[in-house]
Design goal:
The chain is an all-alpha fold. 62% of the residues lie in helices and 0% in strands. The longest helix is centred in the middle third of the chain and has 19 residues. The protein is globular, with a radius of gyration of 15 Å. The model has no long low-confidence stretch (mean pLDDT 80).
């Protein structure tokens, strides 16, 4: 088996290319929130879901979430 990280590099390419746009994150909290959003989007893509529809579903379910 050949060791290959192309799939990982391809998955983060949009994040790396857009990193200059993240300079508006003037705080640690802003940077963490940006990372959370990218994580949700990339997880949707990896699960063969349409990212916008997935985000709408996730964000509409948040008010009904029960946290412990």
């Amino acid at each position: 088996m050949e060791i290959n990280n192309n799939s990982v590099e391809n998955a983060i390419r949009s994040f790396v290319i857009g990193h200059k746009g993240l300079f508006f994150s003037n705080s640690v909290t802003g940077a963490k929130e940006s990372a959370n959003l990218y994580s949700l989007i990339e997880t949707a893509k990896a699960s063969s879901l349409e990212p916008y529809a997935h985000l709408r579903k996730v964000f509409s379910a948040i008010p009904n979430a029960i946290t412990l």
